[in-house]
């Protein structure tokens, strides 16, 4: 249920409708239209993985195989359903996507997934960033339940037209020079706010900035590698909390809740001028802001160096009846070609480091974002990526912290009250 | 021989004598067979989940990982759980805020629909329309209406000089908005049930009241309401069960990240939302089950209270 995957949802409405149908939608996708020797491979993902063309290619190479993708708009809902199906031992697709925040959780029941090591994944594991491969591998190193698709990477998306109105530079190099650090970023924000009044704000919300800072500075966040809750003693958490809330106190936040209808409307209406954006977020922004805002956005580097936020894996549940084909499909989709195809389709940054030097990735630009050199920007972010360990209970703890931060941002609680709530709720959630 | 006839009858004979007209054994079996589908369905979809939930609630049961026996541990943990009490309070609060005006309104609406109206059937069908609208659509539309920045309600309030209200942020405003959603959906439905009951009230009572000089308001108070008492209790009971299980409206009202917590300070998280959060976000399957069971008991208690009230009201009559 991390922002990452939520971001990828195609439409808020679709997700909400599915939420409502939650009780019924448990499983029941029995549409295996296999007739004769035809085989249907079912793939379940959330949001948009950009696999349409790759599926077609796979189908061409495998006559008689048909791929049916089901996509859930809402990551939280997707995770809930996937967990139910995995726990129940039936109903999951032949290939399922697992988000970074959930993979630790599913490692608890590694026996419910095909172990890629038994199919030779160790022989070509240099195909992924070390930590990416490690993230989906059990602590004893014997079991790998997922192969990497994309990683987050981090950059800063900003509205050129609003910057111009506020009398700030608009060129992405000059903009980058404005904010080497998050403190400098806050100062630029205050300058922006003074010029623009109260209708437009500099950042979308404290929570998004908070997550960017946290995922940038930390090796561990809420849990240490022994799954012990360290929220109260980890300076990285405290620092990200203070920095983000200082921005809110400075009055530069639009205080919009991530992935809410109003946040979505904010992209279209230009309610905020900057948002920290991992690679997968660019397609989300484009979708929400719409054609009428094409060319108004640009991308530059994020304060404080690179970081990672989000990213996914593909896995094959052991209940799949077509395991061999499913494994082949996963190999294909997570191969260099597959990852590049997804990058070209929706801009998801590959987790394959050998691609980072290829011209196809390095020279890629994004027309919607004023032809920003997304290849360079995100690869630069990715090369300084540090792995962040997320515990099995990361999601509920993160929800608790974000809720508390919003209550401080909205003025319902003081910062220190909100922090106390965050810690006690995190302790309750960690169990 | 006489002694023989005076022998006491066997139990079977006595039963046969006690129930004259009873058919042979085969028909008895057939009778049970005919009503068995209900009991089978109830056992599979009602009783089994109920008992299984109780069994789960006695464990520390992670959806994906381990499970271990914990006895009544979950229940004692629940007593000290602020979030549980908060959810219970929200549920009861929203229930009262939504149900009281809803029942009053639907009574009045039923009374209106019972008049001689032009295109009467059209009106009667009209009030049911909100009820057949998809609940998800209702949630989305109302959430947009109550949006902070671009919502219609704040826009209207702006015309009379009221500052924009962040409806999701405060306890009172979120409860109010959710109650409006619930009322919009269920008022017409309840009005139709009341209407059906109203039509069973003998016209002569009203005619007599009119002759005695009672106005419409007096007639409503002294004839309509007393005659509808059983219906009112029934509708209240149904509304209680529905209200205690309120889920979709508050969930959709909190669009975006962490929807299940019902606001930043859990100001509108209902019990069912808490059950769902514990089970699927927190993966505390056992604990969620214990909350579900307590919820069941609360509903049963309120139902019993209703039944008591009904008996008392009858006594008064």
UniProtKB/TrEMBL annotation, chain A:
Gene3D superfamilies reported for this sequence: Periplasmic binding protein-like II
Transmembrane segments: none
Keyword annotations from UniProtKB, A to Z: Signal
Source domain of life: Bacteria
Signal peptide: 1-25
Stored Pfam families: SBP_bac_8
Region (Disordered) residue spans: 404-431
Signal is among the record's keywords: yes
InterPro entries: Bact_solute-bd_prot1 (IPR050490), SBP (IPR006059)
Keyword Membrane: no
Full protein name: Extracellular solute-binding protein
Organism expressing this protein natively: Nocardioides anomalus
TrEMBL record, chain B:
PANTHER family attached to this UniProt entry: ABC TRANSPORTER PERMEASE PROTEIN, INNER MEMBRANE ABC TRANSPORTER PERMEASE PROTEIN YCJO
One cellular-component annotation, GO: plasma membrane
UniProtKB keywords: Cell membrane, Membrane, Transmembrane, Transmembrane helix, Transport
Spans through the membrane: 29-56, 92-113, 125-147, 186-206, 227-247, 290-310
Matches recorded under InterPro entries: ABC_transporter_permease, MetI-like, MetI-like_sf
Region described as Disordered: 1-25
Pfam families referenced in this protein's UniProt entry, alphabetically: BPD_transp_1
Organism, scientific name: Nocardioides anomalus
UniProt family annotation: Belongs to the binding-protein-dependent transport system permease family.
Subcellular location: Cell membrane
First-listed, main subcellular location of the protein, grouped into a coarse class: membrane
Protein name as it appears in the record: Sugar ABC transporter permease
Record's keyword annotation contains Coiled coil: no
């Amino acid at each position: 249920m991390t922002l990452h995957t939520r971001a990828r949802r195609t439409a808020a409405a679709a997700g909400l409708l599915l939420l409502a149908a939650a009780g019924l939608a448990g499983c029941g996708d029995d549409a295996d239209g296999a007739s004769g020797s035809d085989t249907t491979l079912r793939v379940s993902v959330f949001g948009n993985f950009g696999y349409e063309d790759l599926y077609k290619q796979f189908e061409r190479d495998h006559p008689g195989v048909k791929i049916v993708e089901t996509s859930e708009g809402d990551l939280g809902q997707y995770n809930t359903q996937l967990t139910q199906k995995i726990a129940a031992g039936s109903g999951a697709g032949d290939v399922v996507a697992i988000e970074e925040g959930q993979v630790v959780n599913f490692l608890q029941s590694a026996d419910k997934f095909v172990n890629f090591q038994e199919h030779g994944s160790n022989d070509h594991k240099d195909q992924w960033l070390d930590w990416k491969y490690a993230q989906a591998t059990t602590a004893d190193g014997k079991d790998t339940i997922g192969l990497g698709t994309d990683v987050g990477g981090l950059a800063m998306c900003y509205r050129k037209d609003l910057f111009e109105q506020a009398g700030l530079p608009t060129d992405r190099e000059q903009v980058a020079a404005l904010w080497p650090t998050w403190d400098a970023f806050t100062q630029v924000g205050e300058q922006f706010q003074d010029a623009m009044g109260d209708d437009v704000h500099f950042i979308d919300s404290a929570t998004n900035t908070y997550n960017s800072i946290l995922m940038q500075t930390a090796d561990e966040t809420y849990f240490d590698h022994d799954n012990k809750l360290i929220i109260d003693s980890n300076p990285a958490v405290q620092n990200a909390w203070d920095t983000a809330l200082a921005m809110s106190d400075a009055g530069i936040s639009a205080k919009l809740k991530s992935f809410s209808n109003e946040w979505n409307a904010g992209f279209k209406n230009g309610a905020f001028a900057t948002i920290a954006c991992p690679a997968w977020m660019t397609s989300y922004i484009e979708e929400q802001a719409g054609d009428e805002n094409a060319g108004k956005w640009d991308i530059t580097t994020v304060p404080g160096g690179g970081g990672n936020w989000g990213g996914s894996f593909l896995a094959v549940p052991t209940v799949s009846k077509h395991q061999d084909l499913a494994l082949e499909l996963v190999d294909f989709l997570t191969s260099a070609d597959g990852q590049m195809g997804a990058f070209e389709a929706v801009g998801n940054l590959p987790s394959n480091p050998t691609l980072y030097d290829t011209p196809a990735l390095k020279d890629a630009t994004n027309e919607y974002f004023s032809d920003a050199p997304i290849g360079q920007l995100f690869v630069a972010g990715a090369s300084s990526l540090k792995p962040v360990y997320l515990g099995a209970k990361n999601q509920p703890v993160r929800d608790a912290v974000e809720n508390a931060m919003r209550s401080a941002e909205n003025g319902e609680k003081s910062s220190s009250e909100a922090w106390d709530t965050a810690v006690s709720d995190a302790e309750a959630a960690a169990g | 021989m006489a002694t023989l006839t005076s022998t006491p009858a066997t139990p079977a004979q006595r039963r046969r004598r006690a129930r004259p007209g009873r058919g042979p054994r085969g028909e008895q079996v057939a009778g049970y067979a005919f009503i068995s589908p209900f009991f089978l369905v109830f056992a599979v979809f009602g009783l089994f989940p109920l008992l299984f939930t109780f069994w789960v609630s006695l464990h520390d049961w992670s959806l994906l990982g381990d499970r271990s026996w914990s006895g009544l541990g979950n229940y004692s943990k629940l007593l000290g759980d602020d979030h549980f009490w908060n959810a219970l309070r929200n549920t009861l609060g929203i229930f009262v805020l939504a149900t009281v005006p809803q029942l009053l309104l639907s009574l009045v609406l039923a009374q209106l629909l019972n008049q001689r109206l032009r295109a009467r059937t059209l009106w009667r069908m009209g009030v049911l329309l909100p009820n057949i609208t998809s609940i998800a659509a209702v949630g989305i539309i109302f959430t947009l209406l109550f949006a902070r920045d671009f919502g219609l309600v704040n826009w209207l309030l702006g015309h009379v000089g009221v500052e924009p209200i962040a409806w999701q942020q405060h306890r009172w405003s979120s409860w109010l908005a959710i109650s409006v959603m619930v009322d919009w959906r269920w008022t017409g439905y309840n009005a139709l049930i009341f209407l059906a009951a109203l039509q069973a009230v003998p016209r002569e009572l009203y005619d007599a009241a009119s002759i005695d000089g009672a106005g419409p308001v007096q007639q409503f108070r002294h004839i309509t309401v007393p005659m509808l008492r059983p219906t009112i209790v029934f509708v209240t009971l149904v509304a209680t069960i529905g209200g205690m299980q309120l889920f979709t409206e508050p969930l959709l009202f909190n669009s975006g990240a962490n929807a299940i917590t019902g606001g930043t300070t859990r100001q509108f998280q209902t019990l069912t939302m808490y059950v769902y959060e514990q089970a699927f976000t927190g993966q505390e399957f056992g604990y969620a089950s214990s909350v579900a069971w307590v919820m069941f008991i609360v509903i049963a208690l309120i139902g019993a209270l209703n039944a008591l009230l009904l008996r008392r009201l009858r006594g008064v009559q």
